[in-house]
Amino acid sequence: MRRTFPLALLFFFVSCSSVAQEQVVPEASDTVFPAKVTLLFVGDLMQHKAQLEAARTSQGTYDYSPCFSLVKEQISKADIAIANLEVPLGGKPYTGYPAFSAPDEFLYAIQNAGFDILLTANNHCLDRGKKGLERTILMLDSLHIPYTGTYRNKEERHQHYPLLIHKNGFRIAFLNYTYDTNGIKPSSPNIVNYIDKKVIQQDIDTARAWQPGAIIACMHWGNEYQSLPSREQRQLADWLLEQGVTHIIGSHPHVIQPMELRTDSLTGMQHAVVYSLGNFISNMSQINTDGGLIFTLELEKDTVASLIPHIRVRHCGYNLVWTARPTLSNEKNYIIYPTDSIPASKLPDTARNSLNIFVKNARKLLQQHNVGIREDKK
């Protein structure tokens, strides 16, 4: 049964001034609460034309429930599950690449799969212009799904950003930025968070003033189809950590890129840097684009509450997922498979061959370039 997220997770959309007004009341020094929180991240949730056709029912509605059926349990078990929503919910006509607009049923299925937070700052968030951006926000608000990255106006951004999440006694701030929006500029008064160091620095300062246990920057960056991070990605990652970001999670290249667990030589604090999670679901079929990562980050802290608790990385790891397209699987719909738990007889030979190519390439890349982060084997 899916947890009731809005009750279990109190999410605060607050400005710096509202924090000062409300004051976070310190818990008593002998208060004991859960000592760990598990965060789960996946890459791009895409919706190409072929996916639309596969999900369409005879009644003219759309059914995406098979897509997430094999990963739903893992997603729902996480305390906080985060994904990159790389399609606007712009209403009809529903379209795939290059200007996306997904049916509302796609969002319903994403929520039902167990995702708690959606990232909206990416290069496709303006595919349907002002209407698409605002309708996406309307749908997210109507389902009480916290999001970060795009806003109807300056006032809403000021009130809602950074996104501060309270869970299991942890306070975690989320940031989200994109390198571009395919050359389309937001219509006034809409706002998209672009990668701009001056703006990011201000946002980090705001987040730090709240004294969260972690600040996580979710970056839509890098070069498409490149399996290694660019120099710009590496330099920006270094800069983000220098400014006070705790962990960095990347998306956009549509392929997996390596990840690192860095240790600060002065403080001993560990920082997870994931350059690209790859695709979570899409119709992309170029080599290495038909799968991605589920990245798990488990944080722990002292069980006695304090104003500024010492939070540590208890564990971080990943497992590989692969999307079976109907043309390969002979199924009606697209299905995300955890690559380490597929029965030998489940997939036709053509599908299994494609899966094996993805897994072989991904493991070779990550075993060669990862630093301190290993695959979680079941």
UniProtKB/TrEMBL annotation:
The record's SMART domains line, in alphabetical order, gives:
PGA_cap
Which Pfam families does the protein's record reference? PGA_cap
SUPFAM superfamilies the UniProt entry points to? Metallo-dependent phosphatases
The signal peptide stretch is 1-20
Q: Keywords assigned by UniProt?
A: Signal
Q: Where is the Capsule synthesis protein CapA domain?
A: 38-284
Q: Which family is annotated?
A: Belongs to the CapA family.
Protein name (record): Capsule synthesis protein CapA domain-containing protein
Per the UniProt record, the source organism is: Bacteroides oleiciplenus YIT 12058
Q: What is the lineage of its organism?
A: Bacteria, Pseudomonadati, Bacteroidota, Bacteroidia, Bacteroidales
